[in-house]
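**Protein of interest**
===
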Amino acid sequence: MPPTLEIYRGHTVVTRVRLRGRAVTLGAGEEVDIPLTDDTLGTTPAVVEPTAEGRWRLRIGGRTTAARRDALPLHEDESVPLGDHRLVVRGDAPRDSGTAQSLAAPTRLAQAHEVAAQAGGAAASLYLEYAGKRWPVGHRPLIVGTADDCDVVVNDATVSRHHCRLEPNGALLFVRDLGSTNGTRVDEVAVLEAMVRPGGQLHVGNTCLHLVERERPVATPGPDRFHGMVGTTPRMRGLYRLLERIAATDAPVLISGETGTGKELAARAVHEASGRRRRPLVVVNCGAIPEELIESELFGHEKGAFTHAVAQRDGAFAQADGSTLFLDEVGELPLSVQATLLRVLEEHTFKRVGGNRELTSDFRVIAATNRDLAAEVRDGRFRQDLFFRLYVAPVTLPPLNERLGDLPALVDHLLRCDGPATTPPAEVTP
């Protein structure tokens, strides 16, 4: 029996896929095998692919490099976070998750996505097409099979009597195989439970069903700037919408991009669009602080904790209470500090250097790096658990040579700009 990939939201399985020796793409983008309603993933797909040893691994970002340095192993029964979801590879029979009605309630980020989608136009009406007929996908589930009591009766000897169950889930269709003999496939991927996008194909036995929509949402062009970020290309407009949805949550953000792409500007924009904007953004440049002072800068120190510690001092986490903490160049942190940082991100508690009293802070963290952190994890230079703790709302900033259409707007902005676009953030310096 091939292994099964289970995709969880919270404690509920929302997708099950049979892994049959081929790569499977998943994410919130358009061209993926398994769509996920999770805007924290951006538009670049993640890939679950087989290894030469017969195991499976996850590639973050969908890049195809010769060395595969950005791939992380998926060990059997080990839970690996991916945005707002968790991935688990099962080698035995899949666990029962109940009916499709047991889907977890939308998270704040998912709710923000639905609001943004509704703002873009009217929601599409979904229909299932087969043999020249249409069945509206309404509020009640549809059962597909050959039995007379099915909602969609299929005349195909390779289809089971009660083959699969269909249920709307926002702008997508949730499908669950009902233990059919010949299986259910979304496009070419064999699934036990999965989401189907409008325009997708649902294969039951040898029969193909089509999911269509009566009318497509009217897309709005989007803004041409976002809290100091300038650009009018579709890629930048889409980035602004993503940042706006992320800003409505407290999810950790990991901003990746080449040097000079504006990672700090994007972090500042998220902060300014969030409910924490009344307090200044706290910035820590992790690559500019000597290793022996990093913990003091992050967590503060007590008087006399070390030489020159002549007074008690609050660190960045204490300063960011009620605000946003921006960890620039987070990939430069030494492993010894990464373990402590992970605990602080999980518990929101910390101790000053040389202190015994546990302090709390209500902060939101945004991290940035110009490194390939997945490759750093593979090489043992960055903790995998910390990587996934930060990789909740990933954002990738495009370099200028990938958005040359923004040059006129950027030139005009620079010519008109007499000073900083926004108030400079509070910065922590060594």
Observations:
- Residues 234-247 form the longest helix (14 residues).
- The CA atoms of residues 291 and 334 lie 7 Å apart.
